[in-house]
Amino acid sequence: MLDALKFFLFVILLLVTIMLNQHVTSKRSAELDLELLWQIQDTKGVYVIANQTVPSGVYTALEQSMVIGSLLEEYNDVNTSWVGETDWTYLTNLSCLAEDYKYVLLTFHGVDTFASVSLGEQLLGSTENMFVRYRYDVKHLCDGDTHELRLQFRSPVVEARERAKDRALPIVPTCPPDVYHGQCHVNLIRKMQASFAWDWGLSAPSMGIWKPIRLEYYSSALIRDLTVVISELEVNGSERWSVAVRVYLETGLASAQVNGLLTFKIIGVPFLNEADQTLAVMNKTNEHGELLVEHGLSVARDAVERWWPNGYGKQTLYSLYVRWEDEAVNGVKLPNPDTMISEKVIRIGFRTVQLSQERATDGLMFYFKVNDVPIFAKGSNWIPSSVLPERSYDSNYVKFLLYAARDAHMNMLRVWGGGLYESDHFYRLADELGLLIWHDLMFACSMYPSEPDFLRTVQEEVRQNVRRIQHHPSVAVWATNNENEVALRQNWYKTNANYTAYYTQYVELYVRTVLPTVEANDPWRTVLLSSPSNGDQSLKERFIATNPQDPRYGDVHYYNYFLDGWNAAQYRGGRFVSEYGFQSFPAYTSWPEARSYRQAELSQLINHRQHSPLGNAPILTMIELNLPLPRDPSADGYWPELIYLSQLSQAMIVKTETEVYRARRVEYGTMGALYWQLNDVWIAPSWSSIEYGGTFKLLHVWLRDIFAPEHLVAFVNERRQLEVVAVRDTLQPDVQLWDVELRIHRYGSFRLVERIRQERIRVPANTVELVSTWDVYGHLAKQGLHPADHLVLLYAYLHPADGQPSQPAPQPIAENFALLDKLKNIRQEQRVEPTVSISVVSAVCSEQSNLTSVSLEVSVSAPALFVYLQLTPENSTLKQCQFSRNGFLQFQPVRTVQLTCVDPGCRNKIQARDITVRTVNELLVR
C-alpha cells in the first residue's frame, strides 16, 4: 500500500512538472525552459531513448541508456564512431497559449549542429552553427493544442563530407593525421573544431541540444544583452568613471515601434547625475526586431573599488541593473503589466586594461597593463572541460578547474580557438577569481572558407557571443584565430602553391568580417588578428607577418621536443609566450583499464590514445636525456615507473622554461607565460597539468611555487653560471629586503656541504632583480667536488626590519633548487636508496563539505629525490585527491604533507597503507 501511494504521488508530481515546463499558463513570466520528457531516436527507429532532459547530446543519451559504453573508456572513441555518422531526431510535445501576448518565440540557445526544426506540421527553420542562437515565431501555434516539437539532426560528419565535394580550392587540412582516429573537413562547418579529434583529444562528432531551449513570451521589448565600456575620466578636476552602456532590445523577429523607459542602477553606487537613472526610448527596431540603445553613466572614482587580477588586489564586482518598461504600463491600467517589463542584471568591474605595444630598441613591447600597472601574465591555456559540449558546461567541474588555476597563482587563461565560447558560469567565475581571459574566436589550425553563406553565419556567431561575454571585466583581449597566420606563412598545409587564394580567404574572413564585427560590438578591447602574431607589426605587413613567431613582437608559441628541455640555456622567450609545454602520461591509477589489462594491452591502449604524430618519442627522449629510463615494456612495473618519470620530466621542463621567462622580464621584455594546457577531455597522453576528472599531475602541484608571487629563480645559464633572480609580482611595499641562502648538498647525505648567504638584497615591487651570477662549477672544482654528486637548494627570507631581532627560525618566503648535472649522472657512491615511511598524523572529514583532510608525515632515512605520493586504486571512490606537495626533494628526515579529497558521505578512512611512494633513488640503485 505504501509503495502504491509513493508511486501515485510520484505520478502527480511528474504531471505537475510537465505542465509547468510544457504548458504556458501565466503572463507573469518572461521565459520557460523546455527541458523535460524528450525522446531521442535514430531515423530508422532502431534506438529509441525516452524521458530525456535537455541540454542533451546523443552520445550522453546513448551512454545513459546503456546502448553504448562510456565514450571515454577503452577504444570506444572508435567503436562508437557510427553514432556521429547517423542522423538522429529529438521529439517532445509542446502546448502553449498565446492569449494576449504580442510575441511568443521559441529560442534555441545552442543546437549542435545541423537540424531541421518543426512544430506540428510547420517547418520553423534549420540550424547550421552550434555557436548561434536561433529564434522562431510560434505565436500562431500557441493555441492550446499539443504539437510535436521535432529536431531532425543530420550527421555533421556526412554534412562536412558533402561540403567538401567539388571545391576548386580545397580547404586544408582536409583531414587530421591518421593517428588522431578522427573525421575530415571540420573546418567547413561551424562546430567545435576539436569535435572531430585533436592531438590531445578523441573524435566525438556530437549532436544534440547542448544549451537550453526557452519559450519567450512578452508584449513589449525584451532585453537580450547588455554591454559596457568603462573608462577613467577627469572632468573639471573631478575624477570619475564613465560607464557607456549598450542595451540590445528585441521585439520578436520583425520591425516594431517601441516607446518606453529604460531605468539604470548600479546597486550600492550613486550616479554623479541623477538624471542618468532613466532614459526615454521612442524608436523602431530593425527588420530583425533588434534595437541598440546607448546610454552614459558616471560615478565618482572613490565611490567604487577597482577590480584587480589575481594576486594584485581584490576582485570587486558591482551589479548593473537595467529595466525596460513600456509606456503603456503607466498609461492605462493593465491586468498583467509584467508582460511589458523586461529586466537584466550583469556584474561589472571598474578597471582598465591596455595591451601595450610601445616601441622598444629591438622591436615592439607586448604586455598588459591593468589599472596602469604592468602585469606579468602567468597562466595556462583552456580547452573545453569535456569533448561533449552538453557536458562542458558542468558548473561544478568548471569551478574546480578555475579554482585550481587561481590557487596555482595564475592570473590569466587563454580560451583556445578550437573549442567553445564558454558558459556564463565560466566567465562569472573568472571575474570572481581574478583570472584575465585571452579569448580566441573559434577558429584554429586551419584554412577556412570565405563564401558569403559561411561569412554570414560567422558574423552572427561573433556578434552574439561577443555581446554575451563582453561585459565581463576578466576578458582582456580578443584574437580572431589560433595559429592560422603562422600556418599560412609557414606552409603547414601545403598552401604555398595557391598562396594568393588562401591569403585572400584569410583576409576576407578575419580582416573584413571577424575583426570589424568584434570591434563593432566591443570597442573596449584590443583585437589581435591571430595567435601567435606580431601584433601591430603584423598589421603593417599586410596581416601576415614574414615571421609570425618573431620574439621581438607580439606573442609566440614555442615547442621543442628533442633539445634537452631541462636545460635552461635553450630558452630565450619572446615578449609574450602564449603557448609552450610538454607531454606526460596520466597517473597509472587514473587508467581504469590498468587493473585488468596486462602490460602489453595497456601499452596498446596508451599508444592508441597518443595522438601526437611524434608518438611517445619526445617523452622517452627527454627521460633518457636526464633520468634512468625503464627498458623492458613487458616487465611488471614498467608503466607505473614510466608514468612517474614522464610527469617528473614534464614538471621539470615547464618549471625551467617558465622560470627563465619570469627571470627575463627586464632583459628580453618577456611579460607573459601561458603554458599548454590546463585541462584534458579524457585519460590520455597530453600536455595538461590536470588530468580529466581532476587529478593533479606533478606539474600542477609544482605550479604553486613556479607561479608564486614572490619567487627565487635559479638556473644554469648559457655561460655555465648559476643565475639567481629574485621575482616579485606584488605591489606593496615598494621595496623589500631579502636575505638569500644557497646550500650545497651531496645527494647521499643529509649533512650540508656548504652554506653561502647574501643579505639585504634590494627587491623592488612588480619586477625582477638579479641576485647573483656565480661560477658554481669553478667553485666546486677548487674544492675537489664533482658537480654530478651535488645540487643547490636555495631559500629567500625577508630581512628583519631595523631594530627588530631576527627570528630563531625564520620561514622562507621562497625556496627552489638547481640541478648541476643530469640525475642519471649521479655517481655510484651517492646513489643511496632511502627507506621511506608514511604515517597518518590526523584525519578529519566534513560531512557538510564532503572534504576529507589528512595530515601525513613522510620520513626518510636518507635524502629522497622527487618523492611521488599516490593513493592506491582501492580508493577510487575518493575524488579529486590532491597532495599539498608532491614530487618533492626531501633533504630532511621528516616532512609534513596534507592530502585532501572529495569523499561523499565521509565513508573512507585513509591509512598509511593506502598511499604508495616512488623516488628517483630506487631507479638509480638498480
From TrEMBL:
Keywords: Glycoprotein, Glycosidase, Hydrolase, Lysosome, Signal. Its EC number is 3.2.1.25. It is an enzyme of class 3 (hydrolase). It comes from the Eukaryota. One of its GO terms (molecular function) is beta-mannosidase activity. Belongs to the glycosyl hydrolase 2 family. This is beta-mannosidase. It comes from Anopheles merus.
